[in-house]
């Protein structure tokens, strides 16, 4: 099966190059990578400079991460039907690596978002049937999508193991930056889905909570 990987980027050419080179080292060759540059064009240069026809790049300057992903999905050529696949991963901190396993999905999804967006895959027909990505959800576009998939009864297929690496640095969207925007977007998510009170947290904090409960390594 051919896979489409959507990679939004903004003004981080060295990290993008590292991610794409890691992708090219994988043993599964049947993929396309759609890089969407939301910055000044550095991402386009990196993607084109690798010289692999499976990697395509397009500009989407200054539109934000959700619109970048929507543009990448429109340009994607692969994907069929089959539900949502998600996996475990590893947080790559400056001085340590922390394995992370989200575990099976259930009613806990109404309280926390354990799924790593970078380690997830939703087939195109399912995404279209769910209505695509909602730009009004901002930082919580992914949790909003998982909730819609869960309530629609789509299967969640868990691939256990460190299948994706998440490099944690000061510019990450979910780690310390944009706190007021995240609070606003979390309230929008809560209101849209009729959820109870939600605690603002990121996956690293959730990992620590799961590990304290003996549910993650």
UniProtKB/TrEMBL annotation:
<dbReference type="InterPro" id="IPR029044">
    <property type="entry name" value="Nucleotide-diphossugar_trans"/>
</dbReference>
<dbReference type="Pfam" id="PF00535">
    <property type="entry name" value="Glycos_transf_2"/>
</dbReference>
<dbReference type="InterPro" id="IPR001173">
    <property type="entry name" value="Glyco_trans_2-like"/>
</dbReference>
<protein>
    <submittedName>
        <fullName>Glycosyl transferase family 2</fullName>
    </submittedName>
</protein>
<keyword id="KW-0808">Transferase</keyword>
<feature type="domain" description="Glycosyltransferase 2-like">
    <location>
        <begin position="4"/>
        <end position="77"/>
    </location>
</feature>
<comment type="similarity">
    <text>Belongs to the glycosyltransferase 2 family.</text>
</comment>
<dbReference type="GO" id="GO:0016757">
    <property type="term" value="F:glycosyltransferase activity"/>
</dbReference>
<dbReference type="InterPro" id="IPR050834">
    <property type="entry name" value="Glycosyltransf_2"/>
</dbReference>
<keyword id="KW-0328">Glycosyltransferase</keyword>
